[in-house]
């Protein structure tokens, strides 16, 4: 099962900040949080990842709480093209030294004109 | 920016036939994955591949499935005898290593008749 929980859907007005929450209360100390989005049936698109410090890139900002049990993805100025399903993923490390993703159901973000 | 490419974009096959889905991962990536997504459902992990062998596979990845990296550039998923329930989007992903994220292709839509 996915190690994260997210609200099933959110709306956001175009031009406003979209704040997408994620709970990962069972995360352990060295596990990273990754955010992806999926537009229609396209492949998941990588957005950002982080461990414990806040992160920012050209797409978004990631705020991770001090206890690391939750995080928020922020799209600073949402556009209609940001309408998508957003996935918060804590990767699952494998004994082989690699890792896999277990996807949850994500948050369906609808940006409204 | 380099990307993962998948071919074909849509494959229609008769039940019981063999199908091969092809992927060209990003060139300096070392870890390779297949996921699938049945229409309207979650993205599901199938298999991970590193150093020319399977690292881990899910319960979905039974004896009908196999993966191969035949020539150092392509990464293929073969389904030996397709079933109706194999109809889904199949996504290939690759990553460089360490904490670097997986990058996904846009998928192959497999339709079994």
Distance between the first and last residues' Cα of chain B:
37 Å
Describe the strand arrangement of the main beta sheet of chain A, using strand numbers.
1-11-8-3-4
Overall 3D form of chain B: globular
The separation of the N and C termini of chain A measures 35 Å
Q: State the helical fraction of chain A.
A: under 10%
Defining traits:
heterodimer, A: 113 residues, mainly beta, 5-stranded mixed sheet, 4-stranded antiparallel sheet, B: 113 residues, 50% strand, globular
Q: What does this entry show, briefly?
A:
With 113 residues, chain A is mainly beta. Chain A is built from no helices and 11 strands.
Would you mind describing this structure in some detail?
The complex is a heterodimer of chains A (113) and B (113). Chain A is mainly β. Chain A has no helices and 11 strands. In chain A, the strands form 3 sheets. Chain A has a 5-stranded mixed sheet, with no helix packed on it. In chain A, strand 9 and strand 10 form a beta hairpin. The mean pLDDT of chain A is 92. Chain B has 113 residues and is mostly beta strands. Chain B contains no helices and 11 strands. In chain B, strands 2, 4, 5, 6, 9, 10 and 11 form a 7-stranded mixed sheet that branches. Chain B has a 4-stranded antiparallel sheet with strand order 1-3-8-7, with no helix packed on it. In chain B, strand 7 (65-68) and strand 8 (75-79) form a beta hairpin. The radius of gyration of chain B is 13 Å and the shape is globular. The mean pLDDT of chain B is 95. Classes of the chains: A mainly beta (113), B mainly beta (113). Chain A binds chain B through residues 32, 34, 36, 38, 41-46, 49, 51, 87, 94-105, and chain B through 4, 31, 33, 35, 37, 42-45, 48, 50, 55-56, 89, 91, 93, 99, 101-107, 109.
């Amino acid at each position: 099962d996915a190690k994260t929980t997210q609200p099933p859907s959110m709306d956001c007005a175009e031009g406003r900040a979209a704040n997408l929450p994620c709970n990962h209360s069972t995360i352990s100390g060295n596990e990273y949080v990754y955010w992806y989005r999926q537009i229609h049936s396209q492949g998941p698109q990588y957005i950002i990842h982080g461990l414990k410090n806040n992160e920012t890139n050209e797409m978004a900002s990631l705020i991770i709480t001090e206890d690391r049990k939750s995080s928020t993805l922020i799209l600073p100025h949402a556009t209609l093209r940001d309408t998508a399903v957003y996935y918060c993923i804590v990767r699952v490390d494998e004994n082989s030294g690699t890792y896999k993703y277990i996807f949850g159901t994500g948050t369906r973000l609808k940006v409204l004109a | 920016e380099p990307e993962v490419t998948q071919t074909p974009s849509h494959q229609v096959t008769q039940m019981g036939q063999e199908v091969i889905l092809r992927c060209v991962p990003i060139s300096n990536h070392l870890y390779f994955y297949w996921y699938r997504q049945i229409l309207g459902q979650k993205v599901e992990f199938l298999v991970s591949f590193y150093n020319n062998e399977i690292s881990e596979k899910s319960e979905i990845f039974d004896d009908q499935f196999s993966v191969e990296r035949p020539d150092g550039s392509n990464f293929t998923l073969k389904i030996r005898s397709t079933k109706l329930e194999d109809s889904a989007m199949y996504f290939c992903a690759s990553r460089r290593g360490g904490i670097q994220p997986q990058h996904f292709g846009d998928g192959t839509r497999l339709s079994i008749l």
